Amino acid sequence: MADLEAIKEAVSKGRRKDIVPLVEAALAEGVDPHVIINDYMIEAMKEVGARFEAKKIFVPEMMIAARTMQEGLEVIKPHIEGSGSSGKKLGTVVIGTVFGDLHDIGKNLVVLMLQSSGFEVHNIGENVPPETFVEKARELGADVVGMSSLLTTGDPHVKATVEAIKQSDIADKVKVICGGAAVTEKFALETCGADGYAPDAAGAVKVTKELLGLA
């Protein structure tokens, strides 16, 4: 029987050599990939985050755990891409990490979850300037723009990006969602004027559907 707790422990303790065979074994036994992600990998990263905040571990340990999770996600990705069963595209999402921030683990998880829910997602990367968000949203006909920020130093860039979209010619065609460790709901909605806020990947899917009238 699949050892799901071992997957959680591998992520939590950054055991990169263990994660791939453990995830492969679980998938081979028919375990729902969303269960692996939501109930074990994400829970492991929550524990890692709590230990980091308590100063029981430091940045290197946190990054090793995040990379371990990323390797597990790469194994899972082919199993859930396009698994929105209807085959009908729910909408187009452009997503990136704001200027000055190079973090991508959380953003990439959101991409994966949105794709598995039936959205067409364009990941425009990290350290993305406000004007690039606008250009890509226009070019790709986005229904939603999502932006991530892990660092509080990114707050001005989140605000500038939301403002750039809201002041552009596509303002009435696109909804804006903010998320990431540095972003609070109050900051996203009240200070920046975003249309939605998501605390995690599952929340991003929920809010995206709500904003497009799909929930």
The CATH H-level superfamily of the largest domain is Cobalamin-binding domain
| Amount of helix | 40-55%
The domain tally reads 2
Distance between the termini: 35 Å
* The first-level CATH class name of the largest domain: Alpha Beta
| Helix and strand run | HHHHEHEHEHEHEH
Helical stretch count?
Answer: 9
Shape estimate: globular
CATH architectural designation of the largest domain: 3-Layer(aba) Sandwich
Number of strands: 5
Structural class: alpha/beta
Quick gist of this model?
The protein folds into 2 domains: 77 residues, Methionine synthase domain (Methyltransferase, Methionine Synthase (B12-binding Domains), Chain A, domain 1); 120 residues, Rossmann fold (3-Layer(aba) Sandwich). It has 9 helices and 5 strands, in the order ααααβαβαβαβαβα. A 5-stranded parallel beta sheet has the order 2-1-3-4-5, sandwiched between helices.
